[in-house]
Design a protein that fits this description.
By secondary structure, the chain is of the alpha/beta class. 39% of the residues lie in helices and 19% in strands. The protein contains 8 helices and 10 strands. It has a 7-stranded parallel β-barrel with strand order 1-2-3-4-5-6-9, surrounded by 6 helices. The protein has a two-stranded antiparallel ribbon with strand order 7-8. Strand 7 and strand 8 form a beta hairpin. Helix 5 crosses helix 6. The chain is globular, with a radius of gyration of 17 Å. Catalyzes the cleavage of 5-oxoproline to form L-glutamate coupled to the hydrolysis of ATP to ADP and inorganic phosphate.
Length: 251
Amino acid sequence: MVKVDLNCDLGESFGAYTIGNDEEILRYVTSANIACGFHAGDPSVMRKTVKLALEHHVAIGAHPGFPDLAGFGRRNMAVSPEEAHDFVMYQIGALSAFVQAEGGALHHVKPHGALYNMAAVDASLSEAIAQAVYRVNPDVILYGLAGGELVKAGEKVGLRVASEVFADRTYQEDGTLTSRRLPNALITDDEEAVKQVVRMVKEGKVLTQQGKDISIQADTVCIHGDGAHALAFARHINNVLREEKIEIIAQ
């Protein structure tokens, strides 16, 4: 049977602001990427989200991002590899403390937003991130864009890696995600998004915005937890993957 992990970015509420429906979405995913306080989340939200994930037997990952709460971590920042190494290490350490306190174990690390996208094409940035992950915990899995520099850097440093694909994003011919600043970056039709995922998982192919098929490895599929229909989509994609005889399981 074909297998795939279904992951979701969670723990993005902070202070008086509630984002997403974490507890319900956790029923339909196998791994959770929990915000670490820089782009979203706060200590109380981190603790609560870790506890919920453990209760639902969902694998827990740290989701470090740029220190950009106002921009939700989706704005590129000019940082050195050393700076990226340090704030990634800081965030992993923070989430790891909550996981350990609740009796769990950190499963993976997945950078967020602009940090993730920049690392996908920047070898030096990716190497800094991979080194930070390895130095904190060499046993965790590093999630990175399929075919991107972060996956290569993780393998180089000796980490296990998971090639990630996206349900609701379109692709460019070079394998990168279409920038959110460009038209048609997001797939808003749920059926279209699910069809793309099934094809990536079963056939290892995705149709790019240029109209060309490219090869892609789908170890884990990202769905976003902050959209208006996030819960309904999580339920729907879970059901369709099972109907397609695809086993949903953490890496």
